[in-house]
Amino acid sequence: MVLAGGAARRMGGADKPTLPVAGQSMLTRVLAAVHDADPRVVVGPVPPDLPVPVHSTREDPPGGGPVAATAAGLALVPEDVTFTALLAADLPFLTGEAIDVLRLTAESAPMQGAVYRDAEGRRQMLCGVWRTARLREAIDKLAQERGGLDGASVRELMEHLRVAEVSWRRPGPPPWFDCDTDDDLRTAEEWAR
């Protein structure tokens, strides 16, 4: 599941997922990292020229934030899907290998999911793999506590989930590197050369 509906305020409202890095949109790059996922769900606008088939939806209400978007996306994930990748659409260096590391960790750890932890010790919550049923339960609990999901933060959701933190020690850009600003996009282009 790829969350692609953010406002991109720090980039002047640009349609971030469609911005290219090394000639390919960030959304296409993220979807390539989960090429074997079934279904592939995008929450947010889907460009008509997207080169891969996806299921798409929007959060309710529109602009309701990443947790509302996650709930909307999960509604398109069948009950028998064991693991769900929850990803931001602006991760140009995400790879299948990076997803496999998270999935294998989530399978083997007595946790409800796995996310990357950056060098500063921050959890990269929108670069993770979750046990689908546990993610649904956490969203339901949070919705009950708050009376809805509009404006709920990912951090609030994570209070209801036990997560394994994974380090990435390979050379090159980390898989969780996201492009929140024009400077980030320029850095991604330099790294991609």
TrEMBL record:
One of its GO terms (molecular function) is nucleotidyltransferase activity. It holds the Pfam family NTP_transf_3. The keyword Transferase applies. Residues 2-148 form the MobA-like NTP transferase domain. Residues 46-65 are annotated as: Disordered. Keywords: Transferase. InterPro entries: MobA-like_NTP_Trfase, Nucleotide-diphossugar_trans. The keyword Transferase applies. SUPFAM superfamilies: Nucleotide-diphospho-sugar transferases. This is Molybdopterin-guanine dinucleotide biosynthesis protein A.
